[in-house]
Amino acid sequence: xxxxxxxxxxxxxxxxxxxxxxxxxxxxxxxxxxxxxxxxxxxxxxxxxxxxxxxxxxxxxxxxxxxxxxxxxxxxxxxxxxxxxxxxxxxxxxxxxxxxxxxxxxxxxxxxxxxxxxxxxxxxxxxxxxxxxxxxxxxxxxx
Length: 143
Hints:
The chain is mainly beta. The protein is 10% helix and 47% strand. It has one helix and eleven strands. It has one helix at 2-16; strands spanning 24-29, 35-43, 46-55, 60-65, 72-79, 85-86, 90-94, 99-102, 113-121, 128-132, 140-142. The strands form two sheets. Strands 2, 3, 5, 6, 7, 8 and 9 form a seven-stranded antiparallel beta sheet that branches. It starts with a helix and ends with a strand.
């Protein structure tokens, strides 16, 4: 009987001290190559695009920490070794090096490049994860 009580106490204690789930927007790289990732979203100051996160093969990176504030997020990624891209039809600005750009208009005039970002509807979930892979298919999901 004392052993059962001790085991029950440990199980209850492990739930009582469990860390809360983290809210975030994550990208996981399911390829065998390094991938550069940029994200876009709507903020108070307007449309924002920012990057680059370098996500090594078979790892994940957190692009936004904390509770997601928007319903829609936009993603663009490039395979550093093979030049493959994950794109969409929402045009946003990107720069060659690390960037945070306000606005999506006149990218070229402002000295940036324009790329097509893919839209992700998070359904107002607090967290979201995108899985990049070499094969087509579902590459998104709530956390």
